[in-house]
TrEMBL record:
This is Ubiquinol-cytochrome C chaperone, putative. It comes from Neosartorya fischeri (strain ATCC 1020 / DSM 3700 / CBS 544.65 / FGSC A1164 / JCM 1740 / NRRL 181 / WB 181). GO terms for cellular component: mitochondrion. Residues 60-204 form the Ubiquinol-cytochrome c chaperone domain. Belongs to the CBP3 family. Signal peptide: none annotated. GO terms for biological process: mitochondrial respiratory chain complex III assembly. InterPro entries: Ubiq_cyt_c_chap, Ubiqinol_cyt_c_chaperone_CPB3. PANTHER family: UBIQUINOL-CYTOCHROME C REDUCTASE COMPLEX ASSEMBLY FACTOR 1 FAMILY MEMBER, UBIQUINOL-CYTOCHROME-C REDUCTASE COMPLEX ASSEMBLY FACTOR 1.
Amino acid sequence: MPRPGTAAETYVAYGMTQKLFEVCSSQADYSIPQLSQKGAQVPKTEAGEDLGVGEGWWYEDLGLIPTFSTWSQVTFLHMYLLTVRLRALPSYESLQTYSRHLIDHFSHNAEHRMDVLHGLTSRAIRNKFLKDLFIQWRGVLAAYDEGLVKGDAVLGAAVWRNLWKASHTGPHGEDMDWTKVARVVAYMRRVISELSQINEADLILHIGPRPGGKPGIFGYSELDQQLVDGKR
């Protein structure tokens, strides 16, 4: 790794965080099929959000709704997990450099989605949303940090507020399944533990899917369910 505070570190950090962000963003990615269908109306959630189509365990197993807000919160969660690991960088200046580039990549991607997927062509409106998202990111950092320190109940409450919007019901009106929150907490604990064993220069080699289709550190693992079931 380049020396902290040098131009070389800035260039390396920019490129590395771009790749790291792409893996974070892909975890709960979604599409809006109606955009390619002439005259088709984009369906809305009860809250008025554009409803997309997504795959993967965040949507299929946990039952989250494929929307911009879900994507942003799941992406934030993974950015947070990386931030915890990056706090072990040799200097605070390096942490600041990597953290700044990571949130910059998020902002650029989020603005692109607002424009291309959701028709927010006004830069002023997009900028307002981006400011709100940055405030949310600061809240995510504080809430998950508190949860890591105070225990799984506090961390689970933060997950519930951010991913399930503090709702006591699921997307189809069913009672909230709290084991899903527990699975996310177990997931976060496992990922943080596994990331701590990886050199920062090698993170991109381990967090995403590996050759042969093997899952990376990010993504569903049977270990998470076993932790919830108390089998480990």
